[in-house]
Amino acid sequence: MNTAPRTKLAAWRALTLVAALAVIWIVFFAATHGTFASPRNLALLARQMSVTSLLAVGMVLVIVTREIDLSVGAMAGLLGGVAAIAFEKAGWPLGLAFLGALALGALLGFLQGSLVAWLRVPSFIVTLGGMLLFQGALLGATGGISISPGRPFLFIGQAYVPWPLGWAIAVLFTAGLIAAATRGDGTTRWKWLGLAVLPILFTAVMNAYQGIPLPVLLVLLVASALWVIARHTPFGRRLYAIGGNREAALYSGVRIERHIAVVFSLMGLLGGVAGIVLTARVGSATSDAGRLMELDAIAAAVIGGTSLLGGRGTVWGALLGALIMASLDNGMSLLNTEPYWQPILKGTILVAAVAADMTSRRERA
Amino acid sequence: MRACAKAVVLVVLWIAPGCSRQSAEKAGTTPAGGRKIRIGFSMDTLKEERWHRDRDLLVKRAGELGADVLIQAANGNDALQNSQAENMLTQGVDVLLVAPHNGKSAAVIVEAAHKAGVPVIAYDRLINDADVDLYMSFDNERVGQMQAEYLVQRRPKGNYVVIGGAPTDNNAHLYHKGQMKVLDPLIKRGDIRIVADQWARDWLAVEALKIMENALTRTANRVDAVVAANDGVAGGAIQALTEQNLAGKTLVSGQDAELSACQRIAAGTQSMTVYKPIQRLAYKAAEVAVKLARKQPHGETTRGVSNGKLDVPSILLEPIAVDKDNLVSTVIADGYQKVEDVYRGLSPEKWPKRP
User: Fold this and answer.
1) d(Cα B269, Cα A362) in Å, to the nearest integer?
2) Over chain A, what is the mean pLDDT?
3) Using the beta-carbon criterion (under 8 Å), do B47 and A41 form an inter-chain contact?
4) Which of A11, A21, A327, B266 makes the best surface tag, with the fewest CB within 10 Å?
């Protein structure tokens, strides 16, 4: 297959997304008389999208292999609850409580992945069952009582990165991007240089408030790691191959089952991270935490250009998708709109994004 | 472990509703027919702490009165609740208590029960458009009123944020109505400005957190009081206030006297909660249900509450406003929360003196 039209298509898509985001921001900026774009609101906005983002970046990899994971919301709720119980009730040290939740997440993910990979149960069914199972387990574990873990636990959801450290991280990211620019040529060079401005801009805005929120930094680190895995490792490239053309991948010797099991384990791990952040952010683990978050995660991935047909999607696109949805929530809340508008608008944008995707495929691919 | 034991008891109650239990034997009160009275309790959900209490207390009191209770919870699913109620009628309950998830769709349950000659008591939430025999609850509008009154007495002027519950929950609208009854005159006079009035989807704390964060952003932290409809959303709002070092300065209301809310009241970050002594409601419901099952008059004074079809005779209990000053004499004295749980995070000198 010729790659030129593909990259062109991807660039066109990314551009429409950024344009859509710009339109949304400008509208809210004007409607809120500038409050929307204040450093404080942007910092909170970034934090409000952190849990969905953590799930969405993992969801990209799942969807890329042409599977789906409907259990992530319930899984995040359960694991956030488990971490809170381990720390608060069982008196585990914080690090151990976190590790325990993450390990449990990876294990549950692996079990689901194994059912999908080796027993060939459709992932829709496995994870639908998983969702119900995890919801029940959370209810049983908490007994309907909210569990409020102590201060050290909440740190992870509420702390800010001190500004010098924030700048150090920004410089690191920028240096990396500039290095990429020097290796590129022509238009790609300009693309990298343009992107190199982003970390600086982002850090400047965040530091103008209280610094980069810790969960947001976590999102960026996780996203970077997944991006490296997806784009620059043989493992990642095989995931795209599996989703793009399963038979071709099979005949070229890819061990499909193993890859799928690993992807689901990874998703479970991220469910653990998201759950811990969720509990820390809200300040307590509740018996229906995480409800419907799987849909937000899938929507973010799909709006960000991940194709449900498999083989296509990027981690950064999913973050952009999550940002668009979080912006809608945040802006409408600032404007005090009636609650029914948020789901209506989000639903519309989701369908519009997929529709745009399909038409562009037919026209350009 | 206790949850395990409870589960076992429940399973036993389901599988063998005819089994007599020891406590009932001792009480020795069997109805005229010789068979033990069987109360059906169709619940919306067990996802909140309070419903576990409702269930446990009701079972306990009914047991003392010599009745068995069949319990099914529908996890917020209307269709499931209807079929569960039907199943309990099939099992031959003498009276049916219903805490409906959806007051409208539960009307079918009332019809089915009446066809089987079984009286229906709407528990905590009203069933609309149906011939309900009795409604037992706390005065929900009064709950909202108490929340607003408490805040208004302490901050008669300033910026207020109103965070309601799930817009799909009828009670959430009643709380809101009660709150606005108190706030409206002050808003008209210009003393109070509502800077945000939003509903937290599904009563989720994380929704309340976002609403509060955004309200603080918009007003540059100038919020004097938060009318939070229950303790869950209060918790979310307080998280946002803590972030801005406003917790304890901005007043926050609540409802339900949940453990975490009582802890916050003791620590000073939440101003008040409305305590609904569920024990009174559950006990009274068990007593009334047993009387109805025996076809005796319940002997309580009622007042009519319209459900769209008729004025349902209702037993409405008065809730209690609880703050730092009466936390010990109400919630803790009732055994609703334990003193060592509530004050756990605080230094010993802040603990109340033990009687």
Assistant:
1) 58
2) 90
3) no
4) A11
Please state, in angstroms and rounded to a whole number, the distance separating the CA atoms of residues B109 and B102.
11
3-state class (DSSP) for residue A254: coil
Architecture per CATH, domain B4-138+277-317, reads as: 3-Layer(aba) Sandwich (3.40)
Partners of B138 in the β-ladder: B317
Residues 6+ apart with CB under 8 A from A307: A63, A313, A357
The tokens describing B171, both together, are: 């009670």
Q: Which CB contacts under 8 angstroms, 24+ apart, belong to B343-349?
A: B343/B263, B343/B266, B344/B263, B345/A150, B345/B263, B345/B267, B346/B266, B346/B267
Q: Which amino acid is at A175?
A: A
Helix, strand, coil share (%) of chain A residues, nearest 5: 80, 0, 20
Would you tell me how many other CB atoms lie within 10 Å of the CB of residue A38? 18
Per domain, the residue ranges of chain B are 4-138+277-317, 141-276+320-350
Pick the closest to residue A293 from A43, A48, A18, A46 (CA basis).
Answer: A48
- Please give the structure tokens belonging to residue A211: 């610094």
- Say which CATH topology domain B141-276+320-350 has: Rossmann fold (3.40.50)
Cα separation of A145 and A288, whole Å?
10
B97 touches chain A (CB under 8 A): no
pLDDT above 90 covers a percentage of chain B that reads 61
Distance (Å, whole) CA A192 – CA A310: 27
Spatial distance between the Cα atoms of A360 and B101, rounded to a whole number of angstroms = 45
Q: Are A207 and A163 in contact (CB under 8 A)?
A: yes
ipTM of the complex: 0.70
Instruction: For strands B272-275 and B320-323, give the pairing.
Output: antiparallel
Chain A residues lying within 8 Å of B51, measured CB to CB:
144
Mean pLDDT of the B112-119 span? 92
DSSP-based three-state secondary structure for B291: helix
Q: What is the pLDDT of residue B18?
A: 37
Contact B209 A329 (CB under 8 A): no
Strand partners, B273: B322
The angle that helices A50-64 and A293-303 make with each other, rounded to 10 degrees, is 70
Residues 199 through 218 of chain A touching chain B, CB cutoff 8 Å: none
Is the pLDDT at B15 greater than 50? The verdict is: no
Average pLDDT over residues A142-153: 82
Residue scoring higher pLDDT (B16 or A224): A224
Those residues with Cβ within 8 angstroms of residue B318's Cβ, 6 or more apart along the chain or in another chain = B138, B139, B142
- By Cβ distance, the residue of A44, A286, A339 closest to B213 is A44
From A172, A281, A159, A169, select the one nearest A214 (Cα to Cα): A159
Please indicate if any CB of chain B lies within 8 Å of the CB of A48: yes
* Mean pLDDT (whole number) for A293-314: 92
Best interface-test mutation with B: which of A276, A282, A327, A332 has the largest number of B CBs within 10 A? A282
Strands of the B120-123 sheet, one edge to the other:
B67-73, B37-43, B95-99, B120-123, B134-138, B311-317, B303-306
Residue B207 scores a pLDDT above 70: yes
Residues in chain A closer than 8 A to B228 (CB atoms): none
B346 to chain A: closest CA residue: A150
The C-alpha atoms of residue A287 and residue A202 are separated, in whole angstroms, by 35
**Residue A15 confidence (pLDDT):** 82
Task: Kindly report the nearest CA distance between residue A124 and chain B, in angstroms.
Answer: 22
Question: Model pTM?
Answer: 0.78
For residue B117, which amino acid is it? G
Give the pair of three-digit tokens for residue B323: 């703050």
Mean pLDDT (chain B) is 87
Contact flag A145-B197 (C-beta cutoff 8 Å): no
State the smallest CA–CA distance between residue B107 and chain A in angstroms: 26
Tell me the per-residue pLDDT of A12-65, one tens digit each, with 9 for 90 and over. 777 888 888 999 999 999 998 888 999 989 998 999 899 999 999 999 999 999
Q: Looking at residue B254, what DSSP letter applies?
A: -
